[in-house]
């Protein structure tokens, strides 16, 4: 908000130097009340719960209406949105962050900085009964679709308290972005999410940093994927098994509610299915991406997102994202974005990258975004794919997520068969299994085809009031 012009003093004709230049940042007056401070101080020290204070799974506090003036909060948000944001991305997080706000001159930003460094810091020190230094790290983070901050404890040298001031529009749990708090075991290792704090306009959350203050910012992964596959310890076990055999099937991969929504949407008449050919190479239905219902589109975006690339890297040990593994090995030779059709099957290109061109970094331009190609396919009686020489052979991780094929039997066909080039020996067979994520790493000399679906499968599916099953099929490249 711009400063008001000084008015002349009617008596002297001179400008009034005491004229207020702009609205001040003022925290909620209730926080200055001695009774409130004493109640919070006692609750924090005794580890008892209060209306905005909870000590499970670790002591934390949520203050609604943190700043007194709504118009000031709106002005603060407007100034922050004008800042330049840099993409921050590694194995732990992906979001956009501003530079340090300590040197910014904008009115609202300098005001909130003054309050945080001064009055709020003193208030925190009194409530928590800890000595807090004048050093405060303060920046602005912007989370977009598929962004994430995975489980961590915030323990850095000298850090005592972490806080978040939310400047979000009306928010619901389904929007994601909740602050998830983890329980811990006797060894102070994170176990599982036991509490989720919903972002709310002008609300502030703070907690004392400790060896057990594990938390995360929820992303699309946590909304969709079975939580056991997000557990680092379970990921390590999956990775070990995958490294031994180069293939694995992960049952119950999607959360049940999401699975039901997508499965129902796939059977609706809303989706336009196009026949893929020619018949001497393939015959099956492929979804027109412009016709996907919202929940199916979200599932597609999940499987082609950067956060999913990182998850797959953790599950397989492959370097599917330039931030995973050795950077030199993950860099493209020509440093360009790969946009060509990679597998010769006419698959849709799904390149996971930052959509904000202004925030793209030199590092991203040099390495190129992670790349995959994929299709959403419908399989019916008579469908198949054949081996053919036009397939571009290279190392890749194949993913199939099947839906609508409960009770499938091998004699129905529809399974994926892997064979060595110029040999008849079958190396591996992947059978359709409802809500099972199949991952197979293949080399340049390994080919695959989908076995012809015969009459038996058609009659089987008809008994379940459907005539098809479906799969999300992706190929990921290192």
Are there runs of 5+ residues with pLDDT below 50, and where?
1-15, 47-51, 326-346, 348-369, 457-465
Amount of helix = 10-25%
Note the overall shape.
elongated
Largest sheet: 9 strands, antiparallel
Helix count, DSSP H or I runs of 4 or more residues = 11
Strand content bin: 25-35%
Domain Prolyl 4-hydroxylase alpha subunit: 59-226
GO molecular function: iron ion binding; L-ascorbic acid binding; peptidyl-proline dioxygenase activity
Region (Disordered): 1-23, 330-370
Biased composition (Low complexity): 348-360
Notes on the protein architecture:
The chain has 478 residues and is α+β, with helices and mostly antiparallel strands. Helices cover 24% and strands 25% of the residues. The strands form 4 sheets. Strands 12, 13, 14, 15, 16, 17, 18, 21 and 23 form a 9-stranded antiparallel beta sheet that branches. Strand 1 and strand 2 form a beta hairpin. The radius of gyration is 27 Å and the shape is elongated.
């Amino acid at each position: 908000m711009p400063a008001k012009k000084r008015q002349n003093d009617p008596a002297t004709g001179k400008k009034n130097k005491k004229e207020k230049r702009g609205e001040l940042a003022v925290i909620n007056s209730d926080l200055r009340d001695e009774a409130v401070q004493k109640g919070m101080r006692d609750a924090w020290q005794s580890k008892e719960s209060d209306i905005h204070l909870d000590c499970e799974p670790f002591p934390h506090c949520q203050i609604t209406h943190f700043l007194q003036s709504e118009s000031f909060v709106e002005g603060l948000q407007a100034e922050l949105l004008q800042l330049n944001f840099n993409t921050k991305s590694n194995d732990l997080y992906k979001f956009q962050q501003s530079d340090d706000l300590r040197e910014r001159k904008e009115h609202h930003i300098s005001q909130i900085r003054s309050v945080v460094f001064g009055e709020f810091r003193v208030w925190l020190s009194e409530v928590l009964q800890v000595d807090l230094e004048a050093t405060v790290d303060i920046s602005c983070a912007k989370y977009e679709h598929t962004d994430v901050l995975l489980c961590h404890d915030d323990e850095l040298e000298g850090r005592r308290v972490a806080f978040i001031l939310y400047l979000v529009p009306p928010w619901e749990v389904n929007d994601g972005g909740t602050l998830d708090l983890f329980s811990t075991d006797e060894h102070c290792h994170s176990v599982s999410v036991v509490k989720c704090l919903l972002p709310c306009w002008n609300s502030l959350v703070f907690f004392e940093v400790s060896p057990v203050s594990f938390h995360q910012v929820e992303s699309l992964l946590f909304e969709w994927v079975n939580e056991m596959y997000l557990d680092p310890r379970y990921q390590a076990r999956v990775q070990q098994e995958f490294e031994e055999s180069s293939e694995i099937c992960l049952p119950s991969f999607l959360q049940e509610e999401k699975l039901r929504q997508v499965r129902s949407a796939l059977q609706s008449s809303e989706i336009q299915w196009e026949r893929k050919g020619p018949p001497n190479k393939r015959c099956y239905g492929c979804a027109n991406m412009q016709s996907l219902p919202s929940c199916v589109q979200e599932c597609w975006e999940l499987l082609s997102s950067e956060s999913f690339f990182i998850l797959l890297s953790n599950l397989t040990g492959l370097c599917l994202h330039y931030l995973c593994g050795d950077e030199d090995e993950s860099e493209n030779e020509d440093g360009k974005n790969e946009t060509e059709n990679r597998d010769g099957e006419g698959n849709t290109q799904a390149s996971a990258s930052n959509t904000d061109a202004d925030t793209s970094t030199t590092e991203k331009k040099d390495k190129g975004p992670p790349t995959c190609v994929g299709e959403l396919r419908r399989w019916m009686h008579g469908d198949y794919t054949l081996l053919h020489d036009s397939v571009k052979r290279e190392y890749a991780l194949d993913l199939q997520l099947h839906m609508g094929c409960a009770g499938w039997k091998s004699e129905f066909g529809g399974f994926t068969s892997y064979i060595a080039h110029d040999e008849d020996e079958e190396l591996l067979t992947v059978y359709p299994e409802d809500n099972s994520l199949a991952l197979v790493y293949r080399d340049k000399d390994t080919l695959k085809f989908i076995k012809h679906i015969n009459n038996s499968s058609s009659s089987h599916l008809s008994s379940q009031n459907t005539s098809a099953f479906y799969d999300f099929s992706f190929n990921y490249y290192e």
